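Appendix B, Record 12. Input sequence as logged:
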Amino acid sequence: MKKFIKKYFFHIIIFLFSSFVFFYHLDYTTLVSFDEAWYGAIAKNIIKNNDWLNLEFNGKPYYDHPPMGFWLMALSYKIFGVSEFSTRFPSSFLGILTILLLFLIGEKLFKNRFLSFCSSLLMLTSVWYVLRVRSGNLDGFLVFFYALTVYLILKTKQQFIFFPLLTLSFAGLMLTKTLVGLPSLILILFFLWPDFLNFKKNWRFLILGLISFAILFFPWYLSQWRKYPDFYQYHFVTIATRNKDLWSFFKLINIDKSFFYLHMGIRKWYYPWLLSTFFLLLTFKTFAKKEVFFVFLWLFLILYPFLTSEKTELWHLIPVYLPIALITPFGINRFFFFLLKLIIPNKKLVEKIANFLVLFFFLFLSFIQFKIYYHEVFPQSRFIPDDVDISKRLFKYNKKIFLDDDFFPVAVFYSGKEIQPLFTLSDDKKTLVKLFLSDEKDFIVVTRNWALNNLKENNLFYKLLEKNNSYSIIEKI
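Logged structural output:
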């Protein structure tokens, strides 16, 4: 038992801390618009329609993103039933595995458990990573498959027998968020090209890996390609590249915004990361090591596309946290080692002191980060907002439902009904008053309480069906 604890001490600490961070009061808040309730509704429809290939939202086909995240949510619904907890469970569970994978990646790259543990601490106390993993968004799935793919690259380098698992992980990554995971293909080629050339030795695993990738990756893409004429243009151009042309990928137009978002996302780790990066780039001998260069290549491949896009958002940069989490403790360690070596001649003693200083620094900063974001991340009491409350009441109505507000995905998820927002209608029905003046019949509307005054002022009559502090459900009479 003692040997087990000694061997897996860091693993146990990481598992316990990350389990608390990702699951504590996970279901205390309701789903929010836009993406979380939107994605949850899509996963609900997989179960409702028993169709795992053709995604649907509010009665219309959905093919903005591939289905992996929705499949995992739907599987969670199958096991636990539909709830806030089951919507967020797969992302939170994979969040724990991601932190453990990051530790294992650090071990394989730098052969130092202290630094690997520090990498896990950095990731686990980066507030925007925690916020998104504790939600029903796709970022937690994306980061998990990125970490798993990199880990399996390193395992495959040791034993090529892992190549089929690597291709499955890469397929999972590509099935999570359009083309975001594509740069990992360069990492695979960079680290494994000598093994690919050794075809005579590895051909069985190469072929098995390609077959495994094809079985998982192609069914959804081929089915969508055949079914929807605009699939290529919409999925790959409009969504994946934001309608950018090739030349725009060579224009660095968003450096300040991207680095500002990184600062917001990892907070107090930002300047230690910059210091680490600067120091490692200066010490070219260290930077030139294949493992170190591999992490910097990983960082560049993920970060660069966002530096060329005007539409980068804070959460888009979360996958960048993975290489940042690896670079920072290693760079700080080398910085301490460089300073200590000037005054202490014993190299082994210097290494031990440097490890201790890095561990102390990361434990201290992790505590500060966690203390700051505790109340920001963990809700202390359950609360049902008025938009969710009124959406749940829609379940019993079988008429056409219009929504005169902007919580569209929440209304769809909690009502289980098809909802028509007023802003999507033609100009003659785009407002509550215009809708009541139109020839539309047999419908109900969810609207703000104050908006009822507009109907009264225009002598338009309605029946009040439901009401809470903010919203009313009414029908035309």
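The chain has a mean pLDDT of 95.
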